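name: query_chain
kind: protein
chains: 1
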Amino acid sequence: MMSCTVTPVFEQFATSYDAATPIQSQVAEHLAQLIVRYHTGVTDMCVVDVGCGTGKLTQAVMSKFLQNAALASAQLYGVDTAASMLAIWQQRVAHLLSMPLSSTPVSSLPAPTMTLHSQALCANMADMALANQSADLVMSSFALHWTSPSVIAELGRIVKTKGQLHLAIPVAGSFHEVRLRFPKLPVFDFLPSHAWLAAIETLRQQRQGTLMYQAEQSFAASYDNLKSLLKNLKQMGGAVSGKDSIDTATFRRYLQDQSPIGLDYQLLMIGLQL
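structure:
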């Protein structure tokens, strides 16, 4: 028998993560558009990116705020358990204010006026060292599925009254093609949407919040074959553990399949004002 369960080991794959995660980039961009669309006009913001990884979502959101000159100042917190990921997040934040703001020649643009401060927090998502109701915006993309719906209470704890919580969570229905074509291959067991929605509704009721939007959306990428897909999963931080197993002969037979295959994710996108 051969062990083949995907588990996170992001620490050692931080440098390969960005190139291996085009879907995560698409989702971060989509969530960033929603965050900017629902921005309440607060000009001095405390922003927390939970499970920030290398900073794809932070960059997508803050670059849009810079483009729109929407903020006067921002205090950014990146929360992750992988120090190597946080180091790249910090580099991304450092480059934000030096990014070109549009296709207009830089000489004709006013200098950005946003004051930006940042702090990387190496911490568990379920136990963040942040004060109660201290953040105007708490956001998370492609991270919460590594924990459980109970984490929603911790995220809600740090959101200010009239602050916002924006989430993109992979849910059941993801990896559909892999499961269909290779049914004995152990893959990540994503929770159904209703498990997350129940926790979010509990928070909404406790804080008398408002649901701004809720939708499920599919995102996908194609790979040459299963071997290529599994290599990509490893480069994005997926690893092999001994939790589940697959017969070695079956696994080898799967790897001999040279036909193209898609890696698909079903994302729950949700925004809550508390």
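note: Residues 22-37 form the longest helix (16 residues).
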